[in-house]
């Protein structure tokens, strides 16, 4: 009976888990309608796309009442890996022309996915009178203006003086265009700010929204700032020159849009930050500019020791704030203790939220006299921007017990100078006599003439003659091997350009970016032209004019295509190694032919 009940419970749990899994699968399926515009003139064109994130069958479009179908359906499939997660989309596209003015509805399209029928949501479209400049006649630059945005995201627009803030620069790219390259034109200098860059090790593509629309974006630059002046401070803009591919109204045989290449300069724009002054009311007298949230501690390595021994006294501040931008309070010690200049230590890391870690002054203290010496409490004050208040932390008193030495007040041989320098204790063994019996021994005389060293020195030129003859013949043989020397030079040149790609082997994005730059830099160095501005077709024509053989030409263009495909497709380390070896072979062949 018990076994039967357990069996029934397991079956019930399995069914619940299965139904939950199916429900999860259903929730992940999307089928929607995208319009190029929701309002258009009667002389404009409307592009309608039906997109799904899982392949399906029996697609049925709506009747497009009020429109004429100029082109479609064209089908496109996109599969990509973003941060290790695979994404898939399939799109049916139509180009429509309005038949009359008015308000219309793009009705539901249907498709069957995994045996279930899915429908899109109806979308309304308004057709107005003819416009002066139809948007379907926009140039590549017009499309780039609408599809590319550089944004500076500031964490705080009104920080306190010396309070941490961050700026993150993001490049937003519309899914309809492709970015092939970019380079900074003007980097901000951050005047009146203490700044530290947070390195961006790789450009990971992420999905996001900009002004309510779907975009892809990459983080280009991250920097942490601490304002050093109150009032209105300007953050200079970051400017980029971006090479991108923009779709045209023309389509290839398979219905895919034909792209054209253009360059666009984008800027993040100036940002003005209103920096608040630190309040003067309630500011402690010992305040040295610390802003943040901290802990304060004073400690010693020993509390009891003998005279002439040393101890370490540490004044330490730990927490989160402008750790590198204030002074630690000085350590106050009794005059009878000899204190050396402190050694400054810091263990600080900087993240987007600011600096965190600890800083300390390490004092070496040497007592000369027996006695008990108190290290009085010292205080450390800072401003907490979260509470907008000053806070003061005070250390505990530390007592040092010194034994095994003379008392400071015992007189004797103790001398104290008028300028409060440390006293000197004289002992009876400070001076020693120099030894007067050196016990020197005569050096044995040796004669160079007729010795073994003399004959080796005399005969060495004769022994070098056969080696010189052999070496000379070897050099002549190497110099006569013209083809071999040319191959060696070509291989050396190839490895020079591909050095960064080899270092990035295994990291797909970094490897193919470095490989693409190496190929373009090689042609730039060899042909004295900027080939990164050329399309693959232009590069192929250029190499053809330079009488490069078709195999080498096709190999070079194939490598460029692989560099582009790597942005959207998974590439294994084996494929990277093959492309690296192929690049060496192609550059070597090009160098011999060019």
Could you explain the architecture of this structure?
- With 594 residues, the protein is of the alpha+beta class.
- The protein has 4 domains: 27-136, Immunoglobulins (Immunoglobulin-like), CATH 2.60.40; 141-275, Immunoglobulin-like, CATH 2.60.40; 294-414, Immunoglobulin-like; 483-593, Four Helix Bundle (Hemerythrin (Met), subunit A), CATH 1.20.120.
- The strands form 10 sheets. Strands 11, 12, 14, 15 and 16 form a 5-stranded antiparallel beta sheet that branches. Strands 21, 23, 24, 25 and 26 form a 5-stranded antiparallel beta sheet that branches.
- The longest helix is centred in the C-terminal third of the chain and has 29 residues, at 452-480.
- Residues 18-26 and 409-433 have low confidence and may be disordered.
- Residues 1-23 form the signal peptide.
- InterPro entries: BatD (IPR025738).
- This is Protein BatD.
- It comes from Muriicola soli.
Oligomer: single chain
Please compute the radius of gyration using only Cα atoms. Answer: 39 Å
What's the CATH architecture of the largest domain?
Sandwich
CATH class category name of the largest domain: Mainly Beta
Q: What is the CATH fold-level name of the largest domain?
A: Immunoglobulin-like
The tally of beta strands, per DSSP, is 32
**Distance between the first and last residues' Cα:** 87 Å
Count of DSSP H/I helices: 9
- Overall number of structural domains: 4
Mean pLDDT: 80
Structural class designation: alpha+beta
Question: Which range does the strand content fall in?
Answer: 35-45%
Gross geometry: flat
Report on the biggest sheet. Answer: 5 strands, antiparallel
Helical content band: 25-40%
User: Unreliable runs, pLDDT <50, ≥5 residues?
Assistant: 18-26, 409-433
């Amino acid at each position: 009976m018990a076994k039967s009940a357990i069996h029934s419970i397991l079956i019930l749990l399995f069914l619940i888990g299965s139904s939950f899994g199916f429900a999860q699968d259903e929730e992940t399926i999307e089928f929607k309608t995208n319009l190029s515009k929701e309002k258009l003139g009667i002389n404009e064109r409307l592009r309608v796309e039906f997109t799904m994130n899982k392949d399906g069958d029996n697609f049925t479009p709506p009747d497009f009442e009020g429109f004429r179908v100029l082109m479609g359906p064209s089908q496109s499939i996109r599969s990509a890996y973003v941060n290790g997660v695979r994404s898939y989309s399939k799109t049916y596209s139509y180009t429509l022309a309005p038949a009359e003015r008015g308000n219309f509805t793009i009705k539901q399209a249907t498709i069957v996915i995994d045996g279930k029928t899915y429908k899109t949501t109806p979308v309304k479209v308004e057709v107005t009178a003819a416009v002066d400049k139809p948007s379907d006649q926009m140039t590549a630059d017009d499309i780039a203006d609408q599809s590319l945005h550089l944004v500076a995201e500031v964490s705080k627009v009104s920080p306190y003086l010396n309070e941490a803030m961050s700026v993150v620069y993001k490049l937003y790219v519309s899914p309809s265009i492709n970015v092939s390259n970019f380079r900074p034109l003007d980097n901000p200098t951050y005047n009146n700010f203490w700044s530290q860059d947070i390195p961006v090790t790789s450009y990971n593509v992420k999905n996001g929204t900009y002004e309510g629309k779907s975009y892809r974006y990459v983080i280009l630059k991250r920097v942490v700032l601490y304002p050093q002046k109150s009032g209105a401070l300007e953050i200079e803009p970051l400017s980029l020159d971006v090479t991108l591919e923009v779709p045209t109204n023309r389509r290839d045989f398979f219905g895919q849009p034909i792209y054209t290449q253009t360059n666009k300069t984008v800027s993040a724009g100036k940002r003005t930050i209103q920096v608040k002054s630190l309040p003067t009311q309630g500011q402690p007298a010992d305040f040295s500019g610390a802003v943040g949230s901290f802990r304060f501690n004073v400690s010693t390595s020993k509390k009891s020791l003998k005279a002439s021994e040393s101890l370490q006294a540490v004044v330490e501040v730990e927490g989160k704030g402008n750790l590198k931008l204030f002074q630690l309070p000085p350590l106050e010690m009794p005059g009878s203790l000899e204190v050396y200049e402190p050694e400054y230590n810091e263990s600080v890391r900087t993240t987007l939220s600011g600096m965190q870690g600890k800083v300390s002054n390490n004092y070496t203290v040497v007592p000369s006299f027996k006695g008990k010496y108190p290290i009085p409490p010292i205080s450390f004050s800072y401003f907490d921007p979260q509470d907008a208040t000053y806070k003061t932390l005070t250390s505990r008193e530390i007592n040092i017990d010194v034994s095994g030495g003379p008392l400071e007040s015992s007189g004797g041989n103790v001398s104290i100078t008028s300028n409060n320098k440390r006293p000197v204790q004289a002992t009876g063994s400070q001076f020693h006599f120099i030894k007067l019996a050196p016990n020197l021994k005569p050096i044995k005389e040796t004669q160079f003439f007729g010795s073994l060293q003399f004959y080796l020195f005399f005969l060495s030129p004769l022994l070098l003659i056969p080696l010189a003859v052999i070496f000379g013949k070897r050099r002549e043989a190497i110099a006569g091997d013209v083809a071999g020397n040319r191959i060696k030079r070509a291989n050396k040149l190839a490895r020079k350009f591909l050095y960064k790609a080899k270092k990035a082997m295994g990291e797909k994005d970094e490897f193919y970016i470095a490989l693409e730059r190496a190929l373009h830099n090689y042609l730039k160095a060899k042909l004295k032209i900027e080939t990164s501005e050329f399309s693959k077709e232009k590069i192929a024509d250029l190499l053809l004019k330079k009488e490069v053989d078709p195999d080498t030409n096709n190999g070079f263009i194939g490598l460029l295509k692989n560099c582009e495909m790597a942005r959207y497709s998974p590439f294994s380390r084996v494929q990277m190694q093959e492309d690296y070896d192929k690049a060496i072979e192609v550059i070597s062949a090009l160098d011999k032919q060019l």
